[in-house]
Design goal:
alpha/beta, 334 residues, 9-stranded mixed β-sheet, single chain, 10 helices, globular
C-alpha cells in the first residue's frame, strides 16, 4: 500500500532544506538496568545497571529530529566549557549537525538530565542545571551569528526550555530577522519565560503553556477538544498577544488543536498506539511541523505530519527520533 501522494511528496522535499534550531541545549543521559529487589535501606528499587547512553536533548534534540530528514541542520545555543558540554558538541557533530552557533562559557554548567530506566519504565530522573543568561558580549556574538545564518536558512525553530539562553532582546532579534528575510519561524515556548514571539509563523505551546502565557488558570480538558471553551479563549488571547499565523496546541492524549487564522480550529486526534515514553515528543512535533511548513504544506497538513511523527516517537523509549521511512509508513492505509 502506498502513502498519500501529497504527504509522500512533502516528505521528499525535506532533504534539500536548511534548518536552524535556536534554544536551550541539554545532554540527556540514560542509565538502563533491571530491578529484582527493593533496597533494605529505603522503600526504593535497586537497579542493576546493564548499560548507559547519551543523546542530545532539549533544543539539540529538535536538531536531531530535523537531521533525520535533512543534512543541512544547524544549532545555536550555550553549553558549559565542561566535559558534558564537550560530549554534547561531539554528539551533535557526529550526527552531522552544524555547531558553529554554539557558545561555550566557562562560567556556565551544561544542563544534564539523567534518567534511570528499568523494565521499560523511568524509575527516576536527576537534573543538573544552572540557569545562565547571556552576557552583553555573548548577545553580541549571537546577533552576529544570526545576521549571517538566518538569510541562508529555509526555516528557523526556537525551542525554549527556560534555562536562560533565550531572552526578550534575543527573541526580538530572531523575529526581526525572520520577518526581514521572509523565513518560516516556529516557536516551542516555555510557560515561565513570558517571552513574546510577535509575528512568528507558528507557535506550538502545550495546554499548560497556552494558559500560563496569557495568565489564565489551567482548566480541565473538555471533550471534544474543539469545544473546550477555556482553551479556545486562551488561544484567542495568544493570537492577540503573539500575532502569529498559526497556533498548534498539543494536548497529550487528546492529540492537537490547530488554530489557523480566522478558520475554525482543527482537532487532530492522538495517533499513538502504545505510549512508552513521552520525553522528546514535543521536540519531534515542532521539528516536523516546521519542516512541513517550509516544504509548502498548509498548516493543517504540517500539523498532521507533526501528529503522526509524535505518535511514533512516544512508542519508543528514551530520547528518540522518527525516520523518513517510519513517517511514510504512518500514512499508509491500515
Amino acid at each position: 500500500m502506498r502513502a498519500e501522494p501529497n504527504f509522500l511528496e512533502l516528505i521528499g522535499r525535506f532533504a534539500g532544506k536548511r534548518m536552524l534550531v535556536i534554544g536551550d541545549l541539554m545532554l540527556d543521559e540514560f542509565i538502563w538496568g533491571r530491578v529484582s529487589r527493593i533496597s533494605p535501606e529505603a522503600p526504593v528499587p535497586v537497579v542493576s545497571v546493564t548499560g548507559e547512553s547519551e543523546y542530545p536533548g532539549g533544543a539539540a534534540n529538535v536538531a536531531r529530529n530535523l537531521r533525520e530528514f535533512t543534512s543541512e541542520t544547524f544549532v545555536m545555543g550555550l553549553v558549559g566549557a565542561d566535559p558534558h558540554g564537550q560530549n554534547l558538541i561531539g554528539l551533535l557533530e557526529a550526527a552531522g549537525i552544524g555547531t558553529t552557533g554554539v557558545l561555550q562559557d566557562s562560567n556556565a554548567a551544561t544542563t544534564v538530565k539523567t534518567r534511570v530506566i528499568a523494565r521499560n519504565q523511568q524509575v527516576v530522573r536527576v537534573d543538573r542545571e544552572r540557569k545562565t543568561i547571556l552576557t552583553s558580549d555573548q548577545l553580541g556574538h549571537a546577533r552576529e551569528y544570526l545576521e549571517h545564518a538566518i538569510p541562508r536558512m529555509d526555516g528557523v525553530v526556537v525551542a525554549d526550555y527556560g534555562k536562560g539562553f533565550l531572552t526578550q532582546p534575543l527573541a526580538d532579534e530572531i523575529c526581526r530577522l525572520a520577518r526581514r528575510h521572509a523565513k518560516v519561524l516556529a516557536v516551542d515556548p516555555h510557560p515561565h519565560t513570558s517571552l513574546v514571539w510577535r509575528g512568528a509563523t507558528a507557535i506550538k505551546p502545550n495546554r499548560i503553556e497556552a494558559f500560563t502565557a496569557v495568565g489564565l488558570p489551567p482548566a480541565d480538558p473538555v471533550e471534544p477538544a474543539c469545544r473546550d471553551e477555556a482553551l479556545l479563549e486562551a488561544a484567542r488571547r495568544l493570537n492577540q498577544l503573539w500575532e502569529t499565523r498559526s497556533l498548534l496546541v498539543t494536548l497529550g492524549e487528546q492529540g492537537m488543536l490547530l488554530f489557523d487564522g480566522e478558520a475554525e480550529p482543527v482537532h487532530l486526534p492522538a495517533r499513538a498506539h502504545e505510549v512508552f515514553d513521552v520525553s522528546g515528543a514535543g521536540d519531534t512535533a515542532i521539528a516536523l511541523f516546521t519542516l512541513g511548513l517550509v516544504a509548502g504544506a498548509t498548516p493543517a497538513g504540517a500539523a498532521e505530519l507533526a501528529n503522526r511523527a509524535s505518535g511514533i516517537v512516544v512508542g519508543k523509549i528514551g530520547t528518540a527520533t522518527v525516520t523518513p521511512a517510519e513517517l511514510i509508513a504512518a500514512f499508509e492505509p491500515a
